């Protein structure tokens, strides 16, 4: 016998159905409680390669299940098996399916989609396949006489010498091809399990990744992938617990591992010799049992539940320091207080979507994104709806994350209120696109004439270019500016529908590490728009660019070349300001009511610089195009005792700065000076970034909120009067 499949007891402790298939294509079915009553039938003319039990909606779970068998030529049969006490199991042939061509052409796992009439299965090549069950079920319903009570039955008792064959009847069934194929989704080592949970499909494989998918227009669509922990390359199964945790079961080296996605650590680690063995795992509040076969012996590991003496006072959000934080927005939850949704990035290579409630003062993670191979340095949002299939309610945005190894990842986030969960918010994540410079290097033409990019290039900051969908630029492409450690400023284009992220323009003007970048939009009285960009480097310089032309040229080139192009060059900056004596660690731009722009920056030397800019048109042909004029400049040396890593212009006359010295200072800005109004000490060491927003409370009072990250996360709230006197401190 080449394949054996066992199904768990389908009536409580009364029997276990066993299916045994051999190299001659024959199948033997019997109940272990009464092995004498068996059913024999011939499935194929050759060996049976794959055999698996699948619970099926519509069949009574106490005495019936579906059996899938794969044979020569990639043919897969669907059989419904019903246990009959005292008799041989009853078999009905339901469908025939054709697996895609590959060297090892058999299925490894499958599941039925409830109320969809569809079957999802994984094969040995690592592909996920979607089949229709409705037509097969209709044919089987019309042909019950063939398999039950006809003159030539498919199944006979083992006491009868006649051994019928499915070959006589399966020719009447159509051989159906898959509706959707995700070829090699889990690599060449195969798909190990397929699970349905809350309407989503989850697949695991021996590539160290489990994926979340959905069904859309009878096609499988990957939403995101997860890599549980380093070294867990052989994932076998997922288990969803009643308390909302997701357990990942697999093999790490020579150990069987149960990994918790909630705590981010191994719950159990059992030495067993590694994978490539039959095993079974079961857990309950009282005990856990792991059985496996090793060297022909059946081994049993049993452990009774023990009271946990360790209590977590405050769960960590990341394994290392938090490098960036952004507020996505607020979600209204019926019957509960409004909660804020944030996204954080860390040195531990993960990005976390979380809620932070002002009332409970607790941070609850909603989703963890683990696509980066190095640290996450910066985040950026593009607010607005994208995927109509999720509806219009809640917060919807494109999330860009970037960091080490010149890697950018893009996701679509949708957060909605959900009163049934602990966080009161449900978050759906769709992975849209990714980009790595070294990954695309081999695709470049004439690369032997170019200097290869530094593999250690890091993206230091990101900024979404606003207002690109206009009459002037009628394109679905979104554009993203990136500050890079190799001295370049790069522009990327994203086409969400095609899931493409393309490098469209770049410039090495700074000739040194670019630390910060901010894009902003200027609109003249006639409605014409100009896309402007501000970049800051380690020498303290701040450059201002007009990127309108390159963006329009890139949009045309992308449209004509169907999403592929060679990067364009950016024009020289409009103006460059030497704002500091060393690196610029924080940068913020705010438009004034007069249509001018305030640019605030903080430096490694503890200084703060604020300048007022005006955008104008060139007056003569020699200066045609956009011009920038510096109207005011204010410099405050030694504003802090350490690096200024966070700065925000709350109002044209109000500035907030934060530093590694753990001081949060509010400043009053005038045309000639910065006057400190108040200082608050915060508790987060090694501050990395600051984000701010404002809220009008029920009493009509304007309140300012800020969130700080570093070796921890902290949210603060304060107020400021409309005209604060310099000698008085705000609350």
From TrEMBL:
Any one of the GO CC terms: cytoplasm
Main location: cytoplasm
Subcellular location: Cytoplasm
Keywords: Cytoplasm, Repeat, tRNA processing, WD repeat
Pfam family name, one: WD40
InterPro entries in alphabetical order: tRNA_Anticodon_Mtase-Reg (IPR051973), WD40/YVTN_repeat-like_dom_sf (IPR015943), WD40_repeat_dom_sf (IPR036322), WD40_rpt (IPR001680)
Keyword Glycosyltransferase: no
BP GO terms, sorted: tRNA methylation
Family the entry assigns: Belongs to the WD repeat WDR6 family.
Assembly, per entry: Interacts with FTSJ1; the interaction is direct, and required for 2'-O-methylation of position 34 in substrate tRNAs. Interacts with IRS4. Interacts with STK11/LKB1.
Function text: Together with methyltransferase FTSJ1, methylates the 2'-O-ribose of nucleotides at position 34 of the tRNA anticodon loop of substrate tRNAs. Required for the correct positioning of the substrate tRNA for methylation. Required to suppress amino acid starvation-induced autophagy. Enhances the STK11/LKB1-induced cell growth suppression activity.
Protein name per UniProt: tRNA (34-2'-O)-methyltransferase regulator WDR6
């Amino acid at each position: 016998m080449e394949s054996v499949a066992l199904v768990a007891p389908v009536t409580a402790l009364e029997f276990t159905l066993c299916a045994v298939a051999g190299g001659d294509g024959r199948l033997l079915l019997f109940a272990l409680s009464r092995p004498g009553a068996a059913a024999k039938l011939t499935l194929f003319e050759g060996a049976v390669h794959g055999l698996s039990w699948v619970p099926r909606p519509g069949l009574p779970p106490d005495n019936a299940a579906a059996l899938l068998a794969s044979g020569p030529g990639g043919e897969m049969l669907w059989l419904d098996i019903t246990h009959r006490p005292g008799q041989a199991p009853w078999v009905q042939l339901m469908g025939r399916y054709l697996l895609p061509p590959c060297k090892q052409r058999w299925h490894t796992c499958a599941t039925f989609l409830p109320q969809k009439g569809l079957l999802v299965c994984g094969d040995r090549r690592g592909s996920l396949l979607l089949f229709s069950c409705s037509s097969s079920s209709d044919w089987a319903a019309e042909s019950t006489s063939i398999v039950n009570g006809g003159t030539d039955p498919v199944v006979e008792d083992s006491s009868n010498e006649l051994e019928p064959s499915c070959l006589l009847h399966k020719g009447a069934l159509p051989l159906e091809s898959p509706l959707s194929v995700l070829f090699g989704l889990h690599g060449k080592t195969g798909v190990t399990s397929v699970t349905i949970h809350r309407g989503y499909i989850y697949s695991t494989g021996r590539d160290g990744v489990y994926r979340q998918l959905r069904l859309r227009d009878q096609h499988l669509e990957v939403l995101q992938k997860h890599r549980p922990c380093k070294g867990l390359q052989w994932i076998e199964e997922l288990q969803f617990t009643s308390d909302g945790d997701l357990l990942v079961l697999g093999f790490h080296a020579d150990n069987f591992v149960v990994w918790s996605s909630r705590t981010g650590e191994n719950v159990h680690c059992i030495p067993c010799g590694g994978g490539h063995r039959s095993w079974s795992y079961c857990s309950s509040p009282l005990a856990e049992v792991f059985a496996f076969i090793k060297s022909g012996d059946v081994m049993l590991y049993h452990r009774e539940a023990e009271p946990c003496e360790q209590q977590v006072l405050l769960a960590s959000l990341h394994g290392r320091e938090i490098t960036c934080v952004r507020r996505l927005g607020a979600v209204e939850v019926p019957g509960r207080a409004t909660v804020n949704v944030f996204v954080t990035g860390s040195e531990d290579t993960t990005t976390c979507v979380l809620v932070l409630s002002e009332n409970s003062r607790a941070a609850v993670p909603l989703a963890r994104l683990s696509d980066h191979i190095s640290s996450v340095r910066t985040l950026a949002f593009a607010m607005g709806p994208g995927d109509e299939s999720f509806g219009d309610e809640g917060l919807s945005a494109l999330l860009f994350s970037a960091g080490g190894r010149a890697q950018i990842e893009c996701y679509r986030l949708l957060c909605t209120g959900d009163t049934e969960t602990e966080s009161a918010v449900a978050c759906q994540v769709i992975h849209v696109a990714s980009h790595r410079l070294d990954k695309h290097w081999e695709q470049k033409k004439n690369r032997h004439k170019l200097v290869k990019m530094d593999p250690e290039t890091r993206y230091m900051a990101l900024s979404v270019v606003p207002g690109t969908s206009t009459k002037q630029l009628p394109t679905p492409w979104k554009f993203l500016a990136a500050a890079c450690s190799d001295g370049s400023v790069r522009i990327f284009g994203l086409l969400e529908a095609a899931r493409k992220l393309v490098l469209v323009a770049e410039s090495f003007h700074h000739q040194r590490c670019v630390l910060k970048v901010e894009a902003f939009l200027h609109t003249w009285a006639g409605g014409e728009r100009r896309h402007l960009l501000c970049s800051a480097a380690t020498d303290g310089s701040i450059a201002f660019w007009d990127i309108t032309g390159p963006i329009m040229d890139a949009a045309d080139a992308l449209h004509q070349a169907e999403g592929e192009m060679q990067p364009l060059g950016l024009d020289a900056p409009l103006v460059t300001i030497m704002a500091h004596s060393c690196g610029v660690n924080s940068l913020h731009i705010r438009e004034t009511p007069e249509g001018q722009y305030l640019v605030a920056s903080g430096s490694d030397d503890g200084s703060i610089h604020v300048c007022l800019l005006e955008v104008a048109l060139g007056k003569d042909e020699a200066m045609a195009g956009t011009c920038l004029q510096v109207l005011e400049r204010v410099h405050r040396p030694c504003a802090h005792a350490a690096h200024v890593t966070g700065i925000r212009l709350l109002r044209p006359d109000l500035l907030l700065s934060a530093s590694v010295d753990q001081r949060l200072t509010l400043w009053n800005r005038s045309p000639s000076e910065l006057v400190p109004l108040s200082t608050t000490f915060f508790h987060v060491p090694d501050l990395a970034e600051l984000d701010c927003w404002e809220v009008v409370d029920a009493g009509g009072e304007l309140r300012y909120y800020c969130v700080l990250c570093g070796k921890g996360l902290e949210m603060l709230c304060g107020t400021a009067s409309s005209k604060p006197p310099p000698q008085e401190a705000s609350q």
